[in-house]
Structures are given as structure tokens and as C-alpha cells.
User: What shape does this take?
Amino acid sequence: MKKDAIIASIVIVCGFAGVFLLSSYLETNRISVPESYADEDLSLQGKKLKGYALGAEGLVADWYWMRALQYIGDKVVKKGIESLNIDDMTELNPRLLYQMLDNATELDPKLMAAFSYGATVLPAIDPQQAIKLTEKGIAANPNEWRLLQYLGYIHWKLKDYEKAGEVYDRGAAIPGAPPFFRMMAARIRTESGSRDLAREIYKQSIAEAPDEQTKTVSEIRLMELDSMDERDAIDAALDEFRVQTGTCVKKWSDILPLLAKIDLPHNRKLRVNNADEIVDPAGFPYLIDAATCKAMLSPDTKIPLR
Assistant: This one.
């Protein structure tokens, strides 16, 4: 017995030593792979468990949903929010996001948070996947008019205004849908890609947002529109100063009286900080491009405004 115990101990010690040496070797000789291969494919397609999870489908769906949030969050943190383009997130290579959301919503077709998140984020990754997921949600939840709102927005972003109008018409036919659906259907066909229409869409999205992620994206979109209006007005003042003096403005204080007269759309005014600088909606000073004599965003702004 004693001899057997000694042999077993030697085997265990040698095994641990072998594992340690092998791990060290593999770590030292790890093969570098391109960033595009950094994500492992889903080892388990949870949607195949539908009907076999003994009533735990909702729990598994929530796991996929939470994993999808963490998946994108980790990529954004790694990339840096200040350099993130919310209109084109393909550089993050989030190729598993649709799979995670598809699994979550297949297991729980009533998981509206997953559908709304996909409809908000996927258009910047793969618009066709966004449409597919949202149509799936509409088929499973025909009375959820919010999904029609998201689908109309996706088609509007793709500049398919006729299709977007048709989607808002579909939404207007749902019992209990708010009046803005019929109004939007008409405005999209007449105003197409106007900023005022965009502002109404984003405001409505904020008012109806089921989660903070959707609300935050729409708030950023509104800040973008505000910045565009502000830069248009500032550029007009810079042009007027250049016509009058023959030179471009060197500092904002030179034209503050001129800027003070500007009325922005929706009764807004330009913002001035304590250093007499004109600031963007995120609170960072606009810069003056000496080459073009136009206002431009500061590279320090933390909100990814265009």
C-alpha cells in the first residue's frame, strides 16, 4: 500500500510538472493570428436546445443577451470610445454579435431588449442582418409597434425612403400605435433625409427607448445634428468676416458679437465657455481650420460627432 501511494504521488507530481512545462512552452511559442480571427466561433448554438431545455430557454436566452452586451462592450473599450464611429463599427470586427442575438431571440422570441439592441447597433455593422433580426422580431411580436419604428429607421438610414414610409404605414395599422407613425410615413416621403425629420426620429427613439444603450445612441445622434447646425451657422459667420476683412478669423473672440446674433434652429443658441470659445454639444471647443476657414471638431471631443 505504501509503495503504491509513493508511485501514485510520483505520477501526480510528474503530471503537474509536465502540464507546467507544456503550458510554458505553448505560451512562449504562441502563434500570432490576425485580429479578424480573435473571436472564437460559438461552440454552442443554444437555439438548437429550444424545446429540450426543460423550461430554461428564457435563462439561456438571457445568457446570450448578456454575453452580446459584454462582447460589444469589451471591443469598444479596447478600441476606445473617443475613436469609435457609431455609423460604421465594422472595424471592431463584431462578427459574433448577430449569432448571439439570433440565439437569444430564437430561445425567447419575446426578448424585446435583444431585438431593440440589434436594431440599434447592427445597422452600423451589417444593415441586412439588422433588417433580418428586426423582421424576425416583428413576425414573433406582431403587435409590438416599436419594432416597426426600428425597422423604419433602418430603411431610412439606408436612404430607402419609400420602404421606410411603407414600414411606418404598417406601424400605423397596429392597434394602439401612437399617431406619429402616420405623420412619419408622410414626412419621410416628402422630406426624405432632412435634419428636422432625423431629429424627430431620434427624439421619438429616446422617448420610447426600452434600454439605456438605445437611448444613448439616439442622444449622440441628436448631438451630431446639433453640431451640424452649429457649424453651418459658424461657417456663415466666418465667411462674412472674411468678406469684410479679407482674412480668416484667428480667434473666436474676434467674431463673438457676430455669433451672438445667430439664431439656431429650434430656438437654440451657440454655447461659449469661460475662455470665450465656441463649444460643441459635448462641451469641447470648436477649432478653426486655417486652410478652409471653416469650423471643425476638436480631436479631444469624447463624443464621436461627425
